Amino acid sequence: xxxxxxxxxxxxxxxxxxxxxxxxxxxxxxxxxxxxxxxxxxxxxxxxxxxxxxxxxxxxxxxxxxxxxxxxxxxxxxxxxxxxxxxxxxxxxxxxxxxxxxxxxxxxxxxxxxxxxxxxxxxxxxxxxxxxxxxxxxxxxxxxxxxxxxxxxxxxxxxxxxxxxxxxxxxxxxxxxxxxxxxxxxxxxxxxxxxxxxxxxxxxxxxxxxxxxxxxxxxxxxxxxxxxxxxxxxxxxxxxxxxxxxxxxxxxxxxxxxxxxxxxxxxxxxxxxxxxxxxxxxxxxxxxxxxxxxxxxxxxxxxxxxxxxxxxxxxxxxxxxxxxxxxxxxxxxxxxxxxxxxxxxxxxxxxxxxxxxxxxxxxxxxxxxxxxxxxxxxxxxxxxxxxxxxxxxxxxxxxxxxxxxxxxxxxxxxxxxxxxxxxxxxxxxxxxxxxxxxxxxxxxxxxxxxxxxxxxxxxxxxxxxxxxxx
Amino acid sequence: xxxxxxxxxxxxxxxxxxxxxxxxxxxxxxxxxxxxxxxxxxxxxxxxxxxxxxxxxxxxxxxxxxxxxxxxxxxxxxxxxxxxxxxxxxxxxxxxxxxxxxxxxxxxxxxxxxxxxxxxxxxxxxxxxxxxxxxxxxxxxxxxxxxxxxxxxxxxxxxxxxxxxxxxxxxxxxxxxxxxxxxxxxxxxxxxxxxxxxxxxxxxxxxxxxxxxxxxxxxxxxxxxxxxxxxxxxxxxxxxxxxxxxxxxxxxxxxxxxxxxxxxxxxxxxxxxxxxxxxxxxxxxxxxxxxxxxxxxxxxxxxxxxxxxxxxxxxxxxxxxxxxxxxxxxxxxxxxxxxxxxxxxxxxxxxxxxxxxxxxxxxxxxxxxxxxxxxxxxxxxxxxxxxxxxxxxxxxxxxxxxxxxxxxxxxxxxxxxxxxxxxxxxxxxxxxxxxxxxxxxxxxxxxxxxxxxxxxxxxxxxxxxxxxxxxxxxxxxxxxxxxxxxxxxxxxxxxxxxxxxxx
Lengths: 470, 503
Description:
The complex is a heterodimer. By secondary structure, chain A is mostly helical.
């Protein structure tokens, strides 16, 4: 199974090299008429996804070596991967929906894998929310392709869609992206899944929802001020909710899951802005894509690193390997994170009142991310090594960390790499880090224990109330 | 007699003759009985193949016998009828194989297979009937030939279920007959024709036409299990698994649904039915049934009962597709006639396998069944996901066309019905899959009639039919755009019903 996963990733990477730019392939007899496309956006997503799938498959082989049900995991892993890579290249509504559903249903097997009661519970919450998402999407896609009179995504994005379709598509994919109120499955599913599964869930599967938005919403073609504004507000809410709920967590994987809710907020913000103001979209699309790449590489490296830390303890090389992506997520100078944030910030060329809102809230979010990452490193520093550490775990991870640092610089959108080296950008990036450092110092000195809401926050509160009543 | 006349008769005879012979066959002549059954099923498949080719190229096959002046027994194999006939011919073969395995060593098998063949004959007759009188004859023959199958086990529970079944279907038949007689009185004949036959009466007799429509729909609605006429279906679950499979997928409920299609398209004509305002109430009842059946299914612990309520819900997709004015909706309803058949028969085959092999009858006993019977559970999973409407299965194609048809007809609320139904389907099917695959097996199974043979989970005759039909579920979903799919045939039918539309 691992071999098949590796092969699938390699062939995806090979297709990037071999297939001509904007390649399209029609398979009229498959499903309701399948089209496969490799446009610029698809290429970026396919590229970083295939890389992360490759590394994670190698990692999973080592991680599950002594697991008697590893072949079952491998089968679900392969199916999830096939669905996810398919989402990157689907060019028509039906095959997109097929790949999306394949990924969604197969990932259930990853979440439930350990078989513990909490895994069963988390997996069932995951499935219930995923099914709701699928139902919303099915209705939204039917409306969209009816309005377009075509199944091709290229036709759908050019068509004025009814409000109901836009709403259904935003909400349906929003469940995957982890938009606040639709995010509850995320902090439940991540800690119970095996480490490699959490890595692809957070790093890649959340991005499939983003791809859905990019592929089906009339971004850059039609203005949807209300829907766009709602999505932007949801993005901000996600950023800060993720930080507020995550910063006090004691389980590293729960903290990372909330960090993903927070980071996906930046992407919701970008997509919302493009929806509200189509003129900004040509600049936003590469910025959003680039941010997705940065987060995918960084977050999967962090999850895999947590698994390594569990095995080897907080040794210096483990710590350093975790600090790099953590600094990147916090947007430290010289990292891909700064590049991603800077690109997104410059692309958010919006009308009043957004510039002043952004000027206040974005540094605040960066500060929050700094605190989250500081907490993460602190939690990791407490880890003790296992008696037996599985061999072969560290190598794939150590290969992913530098590629997460280097790759973004290599393929960054034109002109941005020079912008971030200015003194102004350096200062803007350093300030939240410095303030964060001060706060961390103060918290440690005072010995304050931050607030840790139960994973799944609102859902757990509901659940507890129900138990209290009965 | 020309070839075109005897082909429809041969199609009937291919199941009628083996059936009659089997009746007189002694119980112990197993080999001969099996040969007769399979020869009949094989012959029927070949004949269907010939007819499909002919009808696709525009040929007509019909036979007619005068019973009374003005009252003919008339058969005609047209595109719509062949859709239903192909389904029953293919599934009859699988069900026969399954029944041979299922009933191995049990008593009264000659009686069983005799009525089984009669039941298929009646189904084919319903599909080929070219006027309401002929339709009614075969419709009642179906009732009478399925009753002995429902009560086959002869237990008190079976007799009670059988009585309820008979009471419902005979009452329905009476109402249907009343409608047919009334229409015959008004029109002088009831011959089916594309685009309908009653348009000339619409001017002054619109009120009567509406009343007749109500009678006819009530008559066929009983077998189609439209709420509130569905009470017999869950009761009939006492029948042996192959009978339930046939009842739910091909014979009884499908005959009712097919009746709805015939009456709307070939008696009233879709355009007249729309202008008389008959489609909106039909859509409303179909939607009500879809949701109600699913809600009731949620609360059934008995696996076959859960499947039965699921049928109540799913068959009304066909009626819904018919009620959506427009070719896309029509296609959606027609393909679901086939798609629901192959998916639901798979589920009943699998339910039978669980019961026979492990003694599992309840959803709550299903824990770990997937570990003990992986192939059966795989087939069950494919069919269940198909009914939920997961893409790459037949069910998705149905739902996609129904949804698109609803939007084309300007009824976006139907999407909400479809979405709710999908979620409810998931809510009553996924717990079954969850238990079977993800819960540990019990220390001992409730009871086992069939011991595992070597590495095989159950006998081949029980295992292969559900695997085949599950495979068909995937093929119909993935290859819907090819020439040989149910979708392609439904497009052909639709292009003949809507004469101004080409697919």
